Structure of UDP-glucose 4-epimerase:
Amino acid sequence: MAKKVLVTGGLGYIGSHTVIELMNQGYEPLIIDNLSNSEVSVLDRIEKITGKRPEFQQIEMRDKEQLQEVFWSNNNQIVGVIHFAAVLLVGESVEQPLHYYFNNLTSTINLLECMNEFDVKPIVFSSSCTVYGNPDQLPVSENAPIKAAVSPYGNTKKVCEDILKDASVAHPIKVVSLRYFNPIGAHKSALLGEFQSGPPHHLVPFITETATGKRAKLNIFGDDWNTADGTCVRDYIHVSDVAEAHINAMEYAIKQDDNSFNVFNIGSGNGYSVLEMVKSFEKTTGKQVPYQIVARRPGDVEAVYADNTKAIKELNFKTKRGIDEMLKSAWDWEQALAKQ
Ligand code: UD1
């Protein structure tokens, strides 16, 4: 029997890479997405890569009836849910907190209600290392204290984890929450990557756009942090490694007892500074990235990288792609985008 997995937000950056890994491993993804921050052409790209077009429905998850219809028409077929759908821009969340809370919380609550109604138990949730804030100890493990979120976006991740945890006590669901560190890069085919509408929001697209000449200089936010070279340290991980972790997480969730809640860090375990990222990019691609040091960015944390031993041990999680491959794939994607 086909193993159908409902993937919310499955046309987004991490969602679409996960759909490919699901298909590679014999699952049948059913994508729902409201296209608020994704493009329907991603389906063509997935088809080119896998040779098969995944099932897709344009659904607004904030409308419970639309979601119920999806569960109803796939009754007894969905083996689990991977929940990516969320609005996710830190700056925008400060300007539109109600939109962020309403969207991210309502979608999650509606999804859990539908899962209860239709007896679907396993759910893998997209969380973030943002819940650790500026950690007291590095590498940061899942047992580290949760810090007050800097942004409404970050808080939606924390509150959604709380909702999932409380729901798992009262209802027979099986929750796995994955706390991603910094996913970067693109599919090795350069057919799929992160689409930007407007200026980028993360470091690596800023680096690649500077390398193309689209931007004169990369702004580095502070070189007076308490790190080896003074710039912030993060745990960058290839998006395809993150995607693969979801299949392990889904299989783990399926095997758990009802009423379970488990959290895993999904990071490489290595910390790289902003300057190290620039240097690695230059070495790997042979392209120069002019930069200037500017003021610290409000809300940035100094250093964060994962203790990923729990995921390695319990999820059989592996990172297969190193920093050079991550940056090379990001560069190939940037060049592919430029040709469109
Ligand atoms: C950001 C979010 C985080 C979210 C994550 C994934 C903030 C404060 N945090 O993480 O909540 O979970 O994305 O969506 O926005 N940098 C530069 N110059 C640039 C861009 C970035 O120096 O032009 C530096 C930043 O200061 C940081 C590092 O690069 O040290 C990585 O930044 P970024 O890619 O934005 O990710 P995070 O801030 O780690």
